[in-house]
User: What shape does this take?
Amino acid sequence: MNSKALLWSGALALTFLTLVPQLAQAQSGIAGVVRDTSGALLPGVTVEAASPALIEKVRSAVTDSDGSYRIIDLRPGLYSVTFSLPGFSIVRRDGIDLPSAFTATVSVDLAVGSVEETITVSGAAPLVDVQNVTSNTLLSKQMIEALPAARSPQALAALTPGVRSPGLGVIPGGVSDMNNSAHGGANSDYQIDGLTTATVNGFGGGSIVFRIAQAYTAEVNVMTGGGMAETAYGSMVTNVIPKEGGNTFTGSFYADFTNSSLATSNLTDKLRGQGFTADSLTKLAHLDDVSVALGGRLVKDKLWFFSSFRTFHVSQTRVGVWDNLTPLGWSYTPDLSRPSVASLMELSRSTRLTWQATPKNKFNLFTDAAPQVAYHRGYTNANRISQEATNYSPYLPNTFMSASWKSTVTNRWLLEATVARNYSDYDQRRQTEKTCKCNTPDIGYDVISKQETSTNTMWGAGSFPITTANNYGHNAGHIWQSINSASYITGSHNIKVGVQFQRGGEWVSVEPNGAIAYTLRNGLPSSITQYASPIVYQNNMHANIGTFVQDQWTYKRLTVTGGMRHDYFTLDAAPQSLPQGIFVPAREFSKTSLVQWKDFNPRVGFSYDLFGDGKTAIKATASRFIASQASGAGGLGSNNPVIRSVLLVTRTWNDADRSLTPNCDLKNPLVNGECGQISNLNFGQNNPNAITYNDELTHGLRGANWETTALVQRQLARNVSVTAGYYHRTFSNFLATDNTLVTPADYSHYCITAPTDARLPDGGGYQVCGLYDVNPALFGRTLSVINPAAQYGRQSQIFDGVDLTENIRLPKGATISGGVSWGRTKTNRCFVVDSPGELLNCDVTPPLLLTGTFVGYVPLPWGMLTSATYRDLPGPQLTATYNVTNAQIVPSLNRNLSNGPNGTVNVELIKPGTIYGPRARQLDLRVSKRVRFGRGRIMANVDVFNLFNAGTGIDSWNTTYGPDWQQPRLLQLGRFVKVGGQLDF
Assistant: This one.
């Protein structure tokens, strides 16, 4: 073959891989074996799966020479499967309730008989998937509708065994309840029909920006492990199967409501002893949720639609935070008559069209415009953030749009192509009296942020540091994504090839007030933070391409799945011109290639039907995943030259004259007047080379992890199954920052004495050694290279966990599911790069932490139904960050700290992973009354959250050692009652 022909062949092959589709991860199917009554395998049997969930009504397959068949890409729903072969009786298996991401095994025996004879068999749907190797938990439509929980798939995912949720104090339906993760992986990626809803600044780690509405959610499938070649990242995946409509017109109206009069405080004696009152604890202040949905046919069996609208508002008081009487002053003065609140508003306007253009070609269009407003963004930080220092953040626009084509070319070939666009912009604005709804004037650019280190309290304005949610500015991101594959399916063999493509960008601006922030210690000025404002940068993701091949073979009882995935990623920084700022000159940054990665990621798994009856499966997987990372500051985008140019520095401030005005030249980086030297002398320079990345990292080595799983699934009875699973994850390719201007010999050792305090280990008073301070002559001098950590020593991060889960389907529709999980992440980084102080607490092995989650619902007589959720969560880790002054250190160091006689350092008084807070337990209960009329139904609900009004659940607390140490910052919500109703027609 000549070079020209070879070039054309390669182009055609690439075009094919780009245009043929990828099966959604939530793919369901029906498979099995057909025999005659003597046990002989029957080839050539026609198998038809029929369901109202299919717009094409019926999908079919033909058994292979070994009698096996497989029908894939089925929508979740109730199925009837018919088996027919000339000379044999027709057998129809009814009542197969097929969930998402599940392969139901349906095998039958055909008896010799007339063509007209049909034997109908009814039986319970199988509970054990003996072919798929992924770890999935399904939240069915019935479960979603029945449970007392925040009405969002993201919040429902927290009810999955093995999932590490943000806790019991987060605002119901707020963005914080989306921070779910599983088995040591990254935060969940939230998907709609297998398409991520994240924008470029959150790919692979999920999105906390886009909220999926329950109004258009049919089922939720949560994958917590065992992803195969079509899965890019080893993170948890929460995939929503949206409603499609149908040949029959259906609709619904839902509304619920609660306010402070239906809520109570969970004040305990311990909290009262810490100075809390009933009004200073977390309490739901207001919640209303209204949604309307309508679906049906535009053309029978040809064109379906489903549309929905939702509006949601919620407010809750914050733990120990009051409106500030002196928002413009030099102290935080709580107004004890006005507890601070956190408020959120969400909208959703969605439409989905399903068009069966021909018997073999189907198209879907979906769009959801979901703007939201976080009225007090940043309030959940570990710091106490006063209301005026939070941000008013409208997320507008905030959209997800997709179009897909699916073609069942034959009963063995399936093609699918999907394209989608995600776009979001959250604009973090300064609070005004109107937006804050608090005791504050409008916050202008001249209001400077202040933080008290002894209590971790911030007021005045937001700041600290560049990567937090308290900075003002824009964060806009968008991606185009295309997911494509082709699958060839037989009864025993299933091969899939595909390409997943993303392209997008992000634009970020950071606007700290006055380009400055003040830090105080016990009410006296301590230090100053200066910012290199204006700060603007843009990253462009030109290609995020995953090409994969996945093959699955079934031989007798054994199903083996293997695959290989190639991931290619390239990101660059757009050229940027930044005008002169208060402390920095005008700067020019050229276009820069940030990263270009190429990774091969093998995946393998097997499932063995132990007894051949489809009731016991042994499964195992081994998979390599690339790391999921944010693209901006703090992630892979940290290589952007704007970020590498040193955006902030700190310096000590000795306000000797108590004027509360820095009597020094802040543009002078060296010691002058009341101000010490800045912490990095590269500040303000057009010098991104102050921090450089090793080429091995930017054009080769990417963070990765190996995940291995081992599971046993057993159906104990007709409607009872249990699963035991072991999960192991090992991370690799760590980074280390090396300041090439210093060596370990340039550091001096010192110790400090911990305060005497009964709450500290052994009552405190012990020596904390292994602390080091750099030679004063080298303070602020930095020329850093970010290298592979393996150049300096061995670093490890290993997760081990065990899940025990159950699924019980009782008579008359009752369902109970859930389980317990044990897990921990061990870390070790016991080598020195710059400071020998890196060896302090370098090896952390926390205890195995137990998490329990159970959900269920039970129909009762007279149209009543009761449901409940129970969560038993470990408490947060307890640390104590002690801000130590120079005077406390001099006796051991025998000199002043390198940052001057007014300098301080933070020292950890408790070894990480050793002390945890009290466990959090909560029972939520719902009682419903349902009345049917014709094809319609009315449902009235009364929900009671935190039924026993437990108050020990602390999600986070003040970890700064001082007068407020161990005080909760985010506490379990007190009991509240919510009333609601739903009309279905």
About this structure: Residues 3-126 form a domain with the Immunoglobulin-like fold (CATH 2.60.40.1120). The longest strand covers residues 334-358.
